[in-house]
Design goal:
By secondary structure, the protein is mostly helical. The chain is 69% helix and 2% strand. Essential for sperm motility and is involved in the regulation of the beating frequency of motile cilia on the epithelial cells of the respiratory tract. Required for the establishment of radial spokes in sperm flagella.
Length: 418
Amino acid sequence: MVLCFFLVELIKEQHHVLDSRLAPVSREITDNRARTREELESVYRKIVSYVLLRSGLGSPTDIKVIREATAALQSVFPQTELAAFLSLSKKEKEQQLKELTMIVTGIRLFNKDCGKGGEGIDDLPAILNEAIPAASHHIDIELHASQQLAYRYTALIEMMHQDKNADIELRQTVLKEALYNVRQHEAFLCIILSDVITCAQEVEMMQKEFAAEMEQVNNIVKSKTAVPTSLVYPIFIGLSNLWTSFQDEILVLSFLNNLTVSLQQFLETHALIFPEELIVPLLEGLVIKSDEERLLKNADDKVNPADFVKEEWFFPESTINFSQLLLQYHGFCAYTFAVKDGLLIPGNPSIGVLKHKERYYSFNSKEAAYAFAKCPDKYIKMVAEKAKECAELIQLLELHHQFEYLAPYSQVLHYILQ
């Protein structure tokens, strides 16, 4: 959620930066008082430059790009109309510059599609079609590595939980901190992957819209020497807006890729703290279970609602939109976390999800579910107390509502996005 909000802000900021960079060029046009032929020609060239800079379609210094953009502009805004343009108010001129940019952009994209132009225009849909799967694959690799570490740490902590000597306690504490860190890493990678998937869906939808718009304009201009501007201009503007959206998705994907790369250092740190020569001997003889294996183990041992009087339970086979239930603690078992001193074990919703005070809880076993249901507030308090010792758990377990007195969540978001 935080990342999605940030990506929206990222796009807005990028558009704001573009507006700021274009402001001097825009002022040179809108504040101009050209009278002579040479002065008017100079203003027209500046309009061409403005159109190219705002559209991002080719270099404004490439002569072929300039010629193509100039020809497209002349078809909708001949130089003879400059005097009328300059007589408009500043606000009207600024608005017309933006509209001209979109129309010219649409024309150039149409010409590119027809094979009659498109100089300097990158094939953004093709670039995205190649880049998105590559980004997903990279994240999957990082996610797998992160999860494997989590499974190892969990197995070791479970084993050490049986031994209470001081040395083991120290190791267990360090391992739990490592587990929290790697689970945070996993959670963040999942968010990034989700955003990449959303990006893919957006791009697929935009490509269909773009193809439909292009087909529509092709049908309108086919075998016609003159076409009403009222028919084609809106389509050209639509093509331009879609192309801007492609540019935005390129920006988003680049940001997500860079973010994934920047997170690699966390896994590298784990390799330094727990090198293979230290970890492998400790794992000898242990069964390392993945989250999926843990879910399958207890999937059929469900809670029996008849065993409870007041408690309300939800099950996948009888609850509409069951997967949309917002599970507390990022889906980890609250009871196990509370009684095993902060051990993170994923809950299994198919066992039964408990509703308590309008919040939903999942558990890693039927026994854990029954124990928690007897006194939910007790274990909820224990989780909160543990989170006070490890502040990173507030974010990982999504405990913001319990710590609003420290800082409002909106304020936390503000700091995160700085």
